[in-house]
Amino acid sequence: MGIVIASLICTTLILLPSGGRGVVAKYALELKPLSKVSLSTYKTDTAETDSTPLITASGFKLDSVNPMKHRVIAISRDLKELFSFGDKVKLSNAGKFNGIWFIRDLMNKKYKNKIDILINPSDRQMSLEGVVISKI
């Protein structure tokens, strides 16, 4: 039964007027871009965060050795209208940062239309423009 329901969700049956044959067309789930943003990176360092660098604004606790394993994004406060803590998002046009990430932190109020990717202490800082962020 579960297979039938999954098939109905993932496929659409189209009946053709000529001949009465049915054609099954599969449609991939498509994500709609919510926003194009600037991307920068940050580390768990008190120079780049507040006095509790291993705890995000949402209260999420980070691994001090490998914080990037959590795939955390901090968003600028203007993006709070579109996203909430814990939201799962997909980044594209972000080079090595393409893929699935989680909103768990907030950036300083001086930033607008920007996301910050949490990286490991040994990683190199970088920034990108025109990154597409989509809510999953």
Structural features, described:
This protein has 136 residues and is mainly beta. It is 7% helix and 36% strand. It is built from 1 helix and 8 strands, in the order αββββββββ. Strands 3-7-4-6-5-8 form a 6-stranded mixed beta barrel. The protein has a two-stranded antiparallel sheet with strand order 1-2.
Short structural description:
By secondary structure, the protein is mainly beta.
| Classification by helices and strands | mainly beta
Q: Please compute the radius of gyration using only Cα atoms.
A: 20 Å
Q: Biggest β-sheet, characterized? A: 6 strands, mixed, barrel
Rough outline: globular
CATH architecture: Beta Barrel
**What is the CA-CA span between the terminal residues?**
26 Å
- Give the full name of the CATH homologous superfamily: RlpA-like domain
**CATH fold type:** Barwin-like endoglucanases
| CATH hierarchy, class | Mainly Beta
User: Approximately what portion of the residues adopt beta-strand conformation?
Assistant: 35-45%
Estimate the helix proportion, in percent.
under 10%
